[in-house]
Amino acid sequence: MAGITIGVASETAAGERRVALTPETCKKLIARGAKVRVQRGAGRGASFTDQAYVDAGAELADDAAATLGDADLVLCVQPPEPAALSRLREGATLVGLLAPQADAARGEAIVARGLQAFPLERLPRTTRAQAMDVLSSQAGMAGYKAVLIAATLAPRFFPMLTTAAGTIRPSKVLVIGAGVAGLQAIATAKRLGAQVEGFDVRPETREQIESLGGKFLDLGVSAAGEGGYARQLTDEERAEQQRRLGEHLKNVDVIVCTAAVPGRPAPKIVSAAMVGGMKPGSVIVDLAAETGGNCERTQPGETVDADGVTVAGPLNLASSGAVHASEMYARNVLNFVSLFVDGGELKFDWNDELLAKTVWPERAAA
């Protein structure tokens, strides 16, 4: 039996360096009976050579059309363009961060071609799914990189230093949002020697923040919600939160914003007035820039001077750590597709909630 063909083409999104398949995961998919075809240069941005894929057992193709044209299963990081989707084999399976409902043309192309798409951002956040959770693995890299950017932009040391010129006090760093990215940011800032606080409207995050050596910033407003996500604050709660936070930010040197709600614009937490009240030389790094930013002064993709406060809105930070980000992403993808790649065939168990709740378009109930 020839087995299914898995195709991995070069990512086409601007600045994207990650790849959905590494030589390590390639070898494991081949061991499951699949044939793997990789576009030449697909792993270059993440420092994986074509020869490494060949050594793992993959075939190489010269372009995306030759790579994906007859593929039964296509793996990607970011979604292919609608035109590329329309050239996939009818009924093929597609796995990646696809966001089909964020782009009408993309969603239409998936439906028109009869593709079976698995947008991994839809994966249920359950214990069993942790090894497949690409949002968490990539957020960890983003949180780490955000603090390094902040440390570079800050006109001061992060750690306390005792020098011949006197004692340098540590920088005060506030991380807003204690999800995976925020917790990684707290841990990284702490390792760099800063005085670190973490703020989240979910009170259950206090223990996690404190376990990493940070101090939980309690503003007296709780937005504990279902499924580990925050609920929407009332107008009165938001006003009180804003007032207390604004006062606190006057003594903060660095803010790292990481608060995001899946499928929605990022909540505006740091107002322009708060930025105006911060000390000159302060720095804000806004990881939520891709969905509008947590700070009103954030300009996605740019670093700006907001009246003496530096505000950075980096995009796709996980891609800047492409080697480890790709390794984690590819292992997540391997663990997910192992649910249905079996003996060189695609076998879907629609009673498995990880498949049933991730697939798009959603399947009609039996």
Automatic annotation (TrEMBL):
GO molecular function (one): NADP binding
Pfam hit, one: AlaDh_PNT_N
Catalytic activity: NAD(+) + NADPH + H(+)(in) = NADH + NADP(+) + H(+)(out)
Keyword NAD among record annotations: yes
Family: Belongs to the AlaDH/PNT family.
Domain Alanine dehydrogenase/pyridine nucleotide transhydrogenase N-terminal: residue ranges: 7-142
Any one annotated GO CC term: plasma membrane
The keyword NAD belongs to this UniProt entry's keyword annotation: yes
Ranges for domain Alanine dehydrogenase/pyridine nucleotide transhydrogenase NAD(H)-binding: 151-313
Key words of the record: NAD, NADP, Nucleotide-binding, Translocase
Function, in words: The transhydrogenation between NADH and NADP is coupled to respiration and ATP hydrolysis and functions as a proton pump across the membrane.
UniProt superkingdom: Bacteria
GO terms of biological process kind: NADPH regeneration
Protein name, as recorded: NAD(P) transhydrogenase subunit alpha part 1
InterPro entries: Ala_DH/PNT_CS2, AlaDH/PNT_N, AlaDH/PNT_NAD(H)-bd, NAD(P)-bd_dom_sf
Organism: Lysobacter silvisoli
Enzyme Commission (EC) number: 7.1.1.1
